[in-house]
Specification:
By secondary structure, the chain is an alpha+beta fold. The protein has 3 domains: 136 residues, no CATH class; 67 residues, Orthogonal Bundle (Recoverin, domain 1); 62 residues, EF-hand (Recoverin, domain 1, Orthogonal Bundle), CATH 1.10.238.10. A hairpin with an 8-residue loop joins strand 9 and strand 10. Helices cover 29% and strands 16% of the residues. InterPro entries: Cys_repeat_1, EF-hand-dom_pair, EF_hand_dom, Myosin_RLC. It comes from Heligmosomoides polygyrus. GO terms for molecular function: calcium ion binding. Keywords: Repeat.
């Protein structure tokens, strides 16, 4: 629960910083598709607004779904997603603004995104693209965020701040999250981790090798009870990936002057011949042979090649 005037906001935000674009004091709850909105919400252009202000995810196609969920809000959904308002069965759908190119970092790599971005699968990018978690409606400006927090645990934020459970950092693919959840459920049938040995057993089953001391630190710093959401944060830290991938994708985006998500093969040849450890003409030819398509090199193919 949050104090009066605050919104349940994995980033700590001041209520004064949270804002929406809906008129008459109403709050954004979902993206409007063809004028359709969740119950008790009204369409204002492309926005659905209501007095309640609980976010609903919207999936343009079934391919955008990230599993089923049981109730409105972010509970049971990955970061950047929330339960849809579908009648009968609800699914985890995006709440990030993937329609704005400014929020899109680039294509996913095997469904993975760098820290701070999540994979979304709109019709225009069925293989997935990485969208900034800073585009979740209602999140306070990045300069006013004071750190990570544990959802539904007010003491994890300083006085005057609340925890924004839709944002945070995420870099696991949907398949990885499903695999981690399956392993978690095997060793924690009630959905809670109760001890350090239990936590270490699950981590080791996933292929991680934390020391007993490190595992105890994880257990101590996370508020109890330790549910799947809290465990996923520990798995991210153990995974210890994302920084190098971030730099590669950002560098390619900086070179993409026309927004084609590709780079001319000639330009890539020049870059490979002039930076870092110099490559021979034969080595460069071999790289281009594997990634170039019709004189252009798609970012997706190049990133996949580099990350091998």
């Amino acid at each position: 629960m949050c104090p009066t005037g605050y919104e349940p906001t994995q980033v700590c935000c001041s209520a004064a910083a949270a804002a929406d674009s809906c008129p008459d004091g109403l709050k954004y709850v979902a993206k409007s598709l063809g004028g359709s909105c969740p119950p008790a919400a009204k369409a204002y252009g492309s926005l659905c607004c209501s007095e309640q202000g609980v976010l609903y995810g919207v999936c343009e196609t079934p391919g955008m779904r990230m599993g089923m969920c049981m109730s409105a809000g972010s509970a049971g959904c990955p970061l950047g997603y929330a339960c849809s308002a579908d009648i009968g069965a609800s699914y985890c759908c995006p709440v990030v603004n993937y329609s704005d190119p400014q929020n899109v970092l680039g294509p996913t790599v095997g469904g993975l995104c760098p820290s701070g971005y999540i994979a979304v699968y709109p019709p225009s990018a069925p293989n997935g693209e990485c969208v900034s978690l800073q585009s979740v409606p209602g999140i306070c400006p990045q300069q006013q965020q004071v750190g990570a927090c544990t959802p539904f645990n007010s003491p994890s934020c300083p006085s005057g701040f609340s925890c924004f459970s839709y944002a945070g950092t995420e870099f696991f693919s949907r398949e990885q999250i499903d695999e981690i959840r399956e392993c978690f459920n095997v060793y924690s049938q009630d959905g809670i981790i109760h001890s350090v040995p239990q936590l270490r057993c699950i981590l080791r089953s996933l292929g991680y090798s934390p020391t007993a001391v490190k595992t105890a630190e994880y257990f101590k710093k996370n508020e109890q009870p330790m549910n799947f959401a809290a465990f996923l944060e520990i798995a991210k830290e153990e995974h210890n990936s994302g920084d190098e991938l971030t730099e590669i994708i950002k560098a390619l985006k900086g070179l993409d002057r026309n927004g084609t998500r590709s780079i001319p093969a000639k330009e890539l040849r020049s870059i490979l011949a002039s930076i870092g450890e110099r490559m021979s003409h034969q080595e460069i030819d071999n790289v281009l042979k594997q990634v170039a398509v019709g004189g252009m090199v798609p970012h997706q193919k190049l990133i996949e090649y580099i990350s091998k």
